[in-house]
Amino acid sequence: MCNRYWVRGDKSEVTKVLPDLDFRVDYGVRYNVAPGHSAPIIRRAGVGSLTLDNLAWGIPEKTVVDPTAGPTVSLKHHEAATRIGHRTAYLYRRCLIPTNGFFIWQQATPTCRVPWLLSYPGESLMMLAGLWEPHSEIGDTFAILTGPPPNRAIWVGYQFPVLLPPCAWRSWLDPDCPFSELAARMHSGVHRPNRDLQQWRVTSRVESPEFQDPAAVIPIPARQELG
Fold first, then answer.
1. In this structure, how many other beta carbons lie within 10 angstroms of the beta carbon of residue 96?
2. pLDDT over 90 for what percent of the chain?
3. CA angle 81, 82, 87 (to 5 degrees)
């Protein structure tokens, strides 16, 4: 599962593909976005209107059956499309999560795991597929959609965020997009990492959600640890 990522906060990267996007909030750099943090997402606010808003990462899931359930930060794509609790959001409240790279952890030994940063060359902008939900007490929230890891990242061993190519960004936000086309978009998205993603070790200090420093995204040698 993807539970950390970073955002460079460069508006020009987004407006190249979505020139009509309304930036309702500050789109600044964030080196270590963690569950519970407020982060920028892109969604459709009305007919033909796209907005960038800050939402809390993690959809509350407390129910009568399980009142202690924590927030859902990621959902398997095929389950979100079919489960009663999330199907409405999948059909009508889809969103894009802008990022320039996301962190995953490799279990190096039974007692040690090491963080890696995955990104496109040049750490160019990528968009993760997501859903958002309204909440009367804490405001709107979002979750990331996931799927199987591509062959190049099969060592990850768990669900991989769904990456959408730029040609799919606008249609992913269109509530009138046919269900069959959404499935095709997912298919095209999960295969791009197999060709383009690069990966490198980063400092283990990203384990802490409070660590917000440029060092979070700087490559380090495999045998070296910062701080």
1. 26
2. 45
3. 65
CB 129 within 8 A of CB 96: yes
Instruction: Give the pTM.
Output: 0.88
> Mean pLDDT for each consecutive 10-residue tract of the chain (227 residues)?
89 94 94 96 87 94 60 87 84 94 84 88 91 88 86 61 89 83 60 67 93 93 51
Contacts of 185 (CB under 8 A, 6+ apart): 129, 164, 168, 171, 172
Residue-averaged pLDDT of the chain? 84
Q: Helices marked H in the chain — which ranges?
A: 11-15, 77-80, 84-92, 166-172, 179-196
Q: Could you tell me which of 72, 50, 48, 68 has the C-alpha nearest to residue 60?
A: 72
Which stretches does DSSP call E strand in the chain? Answer: 5-7, 22-23, 30-33, 38-46, 49-57, 74-76, 94-99, 101-109, 112-119, 126-133, 141-147, 160-161, 163-164, 198-201
Cβ-based neighbours of 190, under 8 Å, separated by 6 or more? 147, 148, 150, 160, 162, 163
In the chain, what are the domains? 5-102+122-198 (3.90.1680.10)
* CA dist., res. 127 & res. 125, Å (int): 7
